[in-house]
Every structure is written in structure tokens, then in C-alpha cells.
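Progress note, project year one: complex with FE3-S4 cluster.
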Amino acid sequence: MYLTSEEERIYEGERGWTLQKAMQILVAIGELNGAERLIPIKSAHVSGASYKTIGDAYEFVERLQGRVAVRTTLNPVGMDLERWREMLIDEDFAKKQRAVLSAYEKLGILAECTCVPYEIPPPRSHPLETSLASSPFRPREGEHIAWSESSAVIFANSVLGARTNMEGAPSALAAALLGKTPLYGLHIPENRNATVKLLICDEISDADFGALGLLTGEIVGDSVPLFEFKGIPSEDELKQLAAGIGATGSVGIFHVKGVTPEAKEDMISEVVHVERSQLRDFLESCGDAGAGVGSSGGGGEPDVVAIGCPHCSLNELRRIYKILKEESKRSRRSKVALPFFIFTARAFRGSEIVRRIENFGVKVFCDTCFVVSPAFERFSCILTNSGKMWRYAPLLSQRRPKVILASTEECVKRAFS
Ligand code: F3S
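Model obtained:
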């Protein structure tokens, strides 16, 4: 791989051990993938921030010196940084988690601790009144970035038209420190073309998008899909689709007819029809990875409801509040009857909508999520609207809980019954 003379000097260690290690990582990845050179990036997003998943490997991050070269955000950690006691997190874990966070913050990484960095509102603005389009955290079309966190990568490529490969935590961190990434994969326009068209024959909504994402990974493998829906999906639905695809597939981009700027049909070589009933069949065929869609999947009685994987947007919070209000009235209960957790970005902490949601007995946590925190290991049957959580919660919990995937309405309804 070609390196400029300055990059050579970094590689040789003339700019210090940290940048040398970062350059070695990028060169190794670049050479493995046939990259010709490095290109500048506008932002980075680093995963591997929860002590539950990173463990003592964070000590490597502690050894790094210097500052990141571009705006860099961090994925969720293992606890709400303010309300961790309420989550029943023990002191020892909290201490270790704070050490992980300090190691990243020392490098200039912004501890936003969310998996939806593209939904962080502009700084110093009221989040409830700000258009995300003007947020510096939201990548622009054609912008090169280096993000880890599969759901965010796929969303950035597919919905925003930014360009990133599916980075791992070390390569995203190396790219952040150098402000560069190897030019290969989804940074190259030709590699972003769709080759399989998925014609969605029925109208789908809500949790169907997460289920469709899981099924898509199975159908297309590493080919790029182009979806044609009946109607135009919302951004929140596309977020669920991205998360579902990221949870099972190896593809880092999809196109949606009428939405994705790059959506073209020139390279399509295969058309697959997908019916709504296939989503249910697929999940049921997955056996003990989850219990199926809705209450008909034989998944037993949920002992917890968890929403916010990926982290809830403001629109999702508003919608959940509306459903909570309706169900509270219908059931004549003022509080939910099941433990109910929602996860969102810190920008919304203290907002009126969160306060109103919590009045129904729901806990809204920031900085963390159901999957990367050890706080939720005590539950054995989770009801969620997230395809990604359906897939990951059993894999990352020692207890291997059952997971029931259901619409947001169904989740709220069950919480009141
Ligand atoms: Fe985000 Fe946690 Fe889901 S990091 S995508 S809420 S598993």
C-alpha cells in the first residue's frame, strides 16, 4: 500500500508509539483488503466501550497517548453514567466502567455513549426543537467516515449516503487517531452497487423491519440488496432494518427505492419476493435464538419489556408515550405491570417527553442498553420490538433468555396487562 512520506515516518515510529500502532493496524487491514492508499475521514465512531464486553482489554487503550484527529463518538457503555445505582450495578463494575470511559476520554473521544451518533442533536441546542439535518454529528452524503457498530455503519451508508466499512473497535480507534482509513470496500462507489432486489410484497411496519433485516442477512449473504417497499419507510423503520441486517449479515449497505440517493437497478442480477409470512417462519425456524414473532411464538410469559435497540430517537420516544397513554387509559392502570426499560441517547435525558414516559413506571436509561449492560441478566424472557436484540440478547447473556419480537404496540399492551 502506498504511504506518503509523513505516513512512512509514522509507520516507522517517528511520531510516537501510539500513532505507530494505529498506522500498523490500518496498513495491515489495507494490505489485506487490497487498498492502494489511505484517505482522510471526517469522523469516527468507536464500539467496545462496555466493560461487560471489552473486559480488561481496555488497559491497552489506557496506554495510548495523544488525541484523536477527527470528531469521534463512543458506543453505549455498561451502565447509565448517572443512574447506575438504580440499575443495581455494583461498585466494582462501575469503577471499571469509569476507567474504560476515562481511557477513551483522555484521547479526546466524546463520551456520548450512543449507538445512534447520527441522531445526536447539534451542541448547545434544545434537542426537542432542533433539526438533525444541521447536526455536525450526522454524516453527509459522500463523506468518508470510519465507524464501528454495525447498525450505525449500515444506517450511515444506506440512509445517509456516507461511506464507511464495517470497522471493528481497534480499526475505528486507529482511524480516529490518524484521521484516515484505507481506501477499499464501501469507500469505493462500484462496491456499493446493489445486485439483489428484494421486492417486499406486503405492507410491513414497526418490528417487521427488524425481522426483515435478520432475514435479509440470510438471503443476500455479502451481496448488496435493493429493497422495494409498498410505501416509503420512516427513518426509524430503516434504523431497525439496518440493525437487523447488521445482526446477521456481512453486508454493510442496502438501498431503498425512493430513499437511498445511490439506489440504481443497473447491476441487479436476481429478484427475490418476500412476503410478510416469511418473516414469522424465519424467526420460528431459528429455534432457541428467540421465541418467534408476537405472542404466538410459544415464547412463554415475558418478565421484562425492553425497547431502544438501537437507541430510541425523539420520534420513537414520542410515539411510545402516545401508546403508553392510550394503553393506560384502556387498561385503567396508571403504571405498567412489568419491568419496562427504554434506552436512548443522553441528549434526551431530562426532557419533558422522558419525564412523561417515566410517569407510567417505565425506566428510561441513557449511555447504555439492555444487551451491553450486566444489569439485565436477571430476566429470562424479554419482550422487545428490536430484531437486533432478539438476536443478541441470548448470545451475550449467560442466562440465554428467550426473546419475543413484537410490535411496539404489543410490547406496551403486554406491559400493562
Ligand atoms: Fe445499540 Fe445496544 Fe442495540 S449498542 S444497537 S442498543 S445492542
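Confidence is low (pLDDT under 50) at residues 287-298.
Residues 75-76, 115, 151, 243, 309-311, 343, 369, 371-372, 388, 392 surround FE3-S4 cluster (CB under 6 Å).
No further modelling is planned for this target in the current period.
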